Amino acid sequence: MIDMQDIYMTYPNGVVALNGINVTIEQGEFVYIVGPSGAGKSTFSKMLLREEVPDRGRIIVNNKDLSNLKMKEIPYLRRDVGMVYQDFRLLPRLTVYENISFALEVIEESPKSIRRRVMEVLDLVGLKNKARFIPDELSGGEQQRVAIARAIANRPQLLIADEPTGNLDPETSWEIMRILEEINNTGTTVIMATHSREIVNAIKKRVIAIEDGLIVRDEHRGEYGYEA
Amino acid sequence: MKLSTLKRHMKEGTRNTWRNSWMTIASVGAVTTTLILVGTFLILMFNLNHVAEQLEEDVQIKTMIDLTAEQSEVNQLEENIRSIDEVGTVEFRTKEEELESLIESMGEQGEAWEMYQQSNPLNDVFVVKAADPANTAKVANEIGTLNAVDKVEYGEDYVDRLFTFNDYARNIGLILIVALIFTAIFLISNTIKITIMARKKEINIMKLVGATNGFIRWPFFVEGLILGVLGSIIPVALTLFGYYYLTHNVVIFEQFSFVQLLPFTPFAWQVSGLIIGIGAAIGVWGSVMSVRKFLKV
Ligand SMILES: Nc1ncnc2c1ncn2[C@@H]1O[C@H](COP(=O)(O)OP(=O)(O)OP(=O)(O)O)[C@@H](O)[C@H]1O
Ligand SMILES: [Mg+2]
C-alpha cells in the first residue's frame, strides 16, 4: 500500500524535516506515528498526498509512484487518500454540510447519494444537528470531527489523521478512536499521528516513532514510549 | 461533465459574484466603460465602411469612344470590354445624353453649355464599373489599351485616396478596439486577483481533497461570464437608444442624401450582439486568467 525508500525533505527555508525515511505499510494496517513536536510527523503525512515533494527517494502510494506522477494525476491520488489535518483546513465560508459535500461533488457523485452520504458521516461523528453551522461557529473538537467526516466521506483506501484527538476531551477522543477503528475494520488503511500516550497504550497497534526526521523505532503492538 | 456538476458550478459562480460584491462592481464598471468605447468604435467603423462602399459604388470608368470609330468598331470595343474578367457592368451613353447630364449637374452655370447642343464636342462613352470597385484602376488601364478608345477617365486621385483612407480607418479602429479589450481583461483579472488572495486558501483546500484544476476553474468561468454580461447591459442600451436617435432624429444626414447610415434593424442589434459577445469573452478571460497562478498546488 505504502512504500517509502530513502526519503529526504528540506523546506524552502532550509529546515531538514525528513532525513532518510524507509517504511512499508500494508493495506488494512493501523499505524500510530509518534515522536516529539517538530520531529517530522506532519511532513511525513503530507508526502503521501504529494502536498510536499521529497528532495530524493521513492514513494509508492496505492500502487502509484509519486515521483513520476503527472500533475494531472494528482487529484485522483488525493481522492483515494482521506486526510485529517492538524489545523482542520475547513472551507471557512461553507457550512459543515457543504464542507463535506464538496469532497463528494469533486468526484461527481450524484446529488442524491451525496445527500445520503453526508448525513451518514455527520451521524457517525455526531454532528447531524450542526449541519448548517459554519466552522467559526463550532468548537475546536467539533471542527476536528467535521474534518474527519470529510476525510472519510468518499470511502478512501487510506486515511491519514494528523492528531485527530488533539483538541478533544477524553470521552470524545475515545469516540473518535472507535470511528477510526470501525473504518479500519472495513479494510481502510489508517495512519494516525498522535501525542496521546493513553490511546497508544490502550489500543495496541503498530507504532512508528520519528525523531529528527528519522524512524527510530517500529514495533507491532508497540507502546507510546515517551514521558507524558 | 455531469448535469448536476454543471449546476453546481453555476450556483457556485453566481454565489461568488454575489459574495464579492465590491469586486463585481469594479469589474462590471471596467467592462462597461470598455464596451461603451468599443461599441462607439464599432458603429463608427462599420458606418465609415458603409459610406465608403456607397461612394465606391459610384466610382465609374468613362471610356471615351474615338470620334472616328465605325459602328462595327464600337461593337467590337464593347465586346472587348465585357471580356475583361474584373468588369461588372457596361453601359453605352450617347454624347447627347452626356451633354444633357453635364448641363444638369452644373445647375445655373449649365446654361452656358447649352450652346454646344448644336455642335456637341463630347464623345459617345461606355460607362464601365468594375465588379469589385478596388479593381477600378486595373480595369481602366486595360481598357486604355483597346482599339477605338480615345481616352479613359476614372477620377484616379479620388478613388485611391478613398481606399487608402478607408484602410487606415479600419486598421486604427481595430488596433484601438484590441487595445481596449486587453486593458479591460487586465483590469478584471487584477480586480478578481485581489479577492482571490482571500480565496487562495480555499483553492488550496479544494485541491487537497482531490479537485481537478478544471473543476476549480469552472465557477470562475461562470463568474466571468456573469461579469461580462452584466457589464454589457448599459453599453447595449446606449447603442440601441443612441443609434435609434441617430438614424431617426438627426437631420444633417438628410442633407447629404448620398450618405446613408446603416439601417437601425438589423445593424444596431448586430452590434449589440457583438458587444455582449465581447463582454462575455473579456469577463471569462479575465476571470480564468486570475485563477491560473493559484492552481499550482
Ligand atoms: N511549511 C513549513 N515551512 C518550513 N518549515 C516547516 C514547515 N512545516 C514544518 N516545518 C518544519 O519542519 C519540521 C517538521 O515539522 P512537522 O510539522 O512535520 O513536525 P511534527 O512532527 O508534525 O510536529 P507536531 O507534533 O508539533 O505537529 C519542524 O522543524 C518544522 O519547523
Ligand atoms: Mg504535526
From TrEMBL, chain A:
Keyword Cell division in annotation: yes
SUPFAM superfamilies registered for this protein in UniProt: P-loop containing nucleoside triphosphate hydrolases
Short name of any one Pfam family annotated for the protein: ABC_tran
Gene3D superfamilies: P-loop containing nucleotide triphosphate hydrolases (3.40.50.300)
Listed GO biological process terms: cell division
Keywords, ordered alphabetically: ATP-binding, Cell cycle, Cell division, Cell membrane, Membrane, Nucleotide-binding, Transport
Membrane topology listed for this record: Peripheral membrane protein
GO molecular function, one term: transmembrane transporter activity
Residues covered by the ABC transporter domain: 2-228
Main location class: membrane
Record GO cellular component, one term: plasma membrane
Cell compartments where the protein resides: Cell membrane
Cited function: Part of the ABC transporter FtsEX involved in cellular division.
Subunit structure: Homodimer. Forms a membrane-associated complex with FtsX.
PANTHER family: CELL DIVISION ATP-BINDING PROTEIN FTSE, IMPORT ATP-BINDING PROTEIN
Family: Belongs to the ABC transporter superfamily.
Protein name stated in the entry: Cell division ATP-binding protein FtsE
Natural source organism: Gracilibacillus halophilus YIM-C55.5
Automatic annotation (TrEMBL), chain B:
One Gene Ontology term from the biological process aspect of the record: cell division
Keyword annotations: Cell cycle, Cell division, Cell membrane, Membrane, Transmembrane, Transmembrane helix
Taxonomy, superkingdom: Bacteria
Transmembrane segments: 21-46, 172-192, 225-246, 266-288
Record's bilayer topology term: Multi-pass membrane protein
Domain FtsX extracellular per the UniProt entry, residue ranges: 59-152
Compartments in which it is found: Cell membrane
One annotated Gene Ontology cellular component of this protein: plasma membrane
Residue ranges annotated for the ABC3 transporter permease C-terminal domain, each copy included: 175-295
Location (main, coarse): membrane
Family under the similarity heading: Belongs to the ABC-4 integral membrane protein family. FtsX subfamily.
General function of this protein: Part of the ABC transporter FtsEX involved in asymmetric cellular division facilitating the initiation of sporulation.
Protein name: Cell division protein FtsX
